[in-house]
Give the backbone structure.
Amino acid sequence: MRLFLLHQRNPAMLPPAKVDQVKALLAEGLTDREVARRAGVGRTTVQRIWAQLLDKPKRKQQVYQPVPSTPEQYQRVRQQATAAMEEKLARKRAYLAMKRDR
């Protein structure tokens, strides 16, 4: 009985048929709450499946780099960081616009 309860609460262990059902309901344009109610899963499960459909990148592990020692190295690192932040912000804006339009 305990394994059954863990199975119901862990979205990674959700049966493929249930995941397909949630995807089909999302394709109909229903809200997350309505999809969760009809499929019998939690809203966070629906949101995780929705994020997988959008192929949202997962959090990357922090990589530590040496401190730049010359002004040129510092400028290059700063430009790379700025470009990465702008790209992340653009992805977030696109995701929020898509979610708002649903």
